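Reopening this one. Same input as before:
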Amino acid sequence: MISFVLIRLLRAVLTVLLVMTFAFFVLRLSGDPALIMLGPDAPTEAVAAFRAAWGLDDPLWRQYLSYLHGIVTLDFGVSMRDRSPALDLVLERIPATLALTIPALILKVAIGIPAGVYAALHRQSIADRGVILLSVMGFTLPSFVLGLLLVLVFAVQLGWFPSGGQDSWRHAVLPVLTLSIGGIGILARFSRSAMIEVLGQPYIRTALAKGVSWRDVVWKHALPNASVPIVTIIGFMIGSLVAGAVVVESIFSWPGVGRLLIVSVANRDLAVVQAILMVIAATMVLANLCVDIAYGLLDPRLRARTTAA
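Same output, byte for byte:
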């Protein structure tokens, strides 16, 4: 098990390094921060002084080495806009983002998995067809469209909830629903498919033939074996908690990491964008690492296969 975890950990570190390298070059090829910060009409001397102050006039390879050194030492630089440490600006926004994403994740798991399992156990029934219909509608509707629809209905027409802000729990209702509805549909579909596939396996029929109760077959045999694909989807959702909130935070004017990312990209605030991408990449890689470890615990054959490779 130790070698299994070490191999996965090495892959995780390499993945984060590749993501951050890609982000470094893309950000520097997408626009000149000096011209965006100072304006296109700024004097040439001012632009040159700005570039020199922020190290933008150094060769690209030297900037990259300095950037890698900063990652290793957890020094992500200073915001060009606020003159504050970039990582501190990101960490200040994370609680606001988690205030949306964690309740949304809980709703996804608490509603999506039971709905999918219930639909699988009542296949071809009206409830099954209803779950399929609602789940397809949920995960095919883009979050920005869903968010605007919720604002139009529940904020503008009915006036039940505010359309934006962060003053009370009522401000979080619509953003949380926007983040959770699509995930509920995805989990319901995957849970249903996984359960139907497992319930059709020979060992399920063998357990029933031996007199095992239907309840025990479902809880002790079917659900544990159907958990691998479900764990995969949950891991992906955990990894995309921060990234998935970018659009929603913009729609509802929620002061989280996602909104900070949009503002920083527009201003070419390199240090802040790089810090946010680092947090997103690390979150997704850590979630995938946890999923891989969960795979090894759920199915020992995966551990043996990975160690042998």
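So the earlier flakiness isn't reproducible anymore. For the record, The first helix runs from residue 2 to 29.
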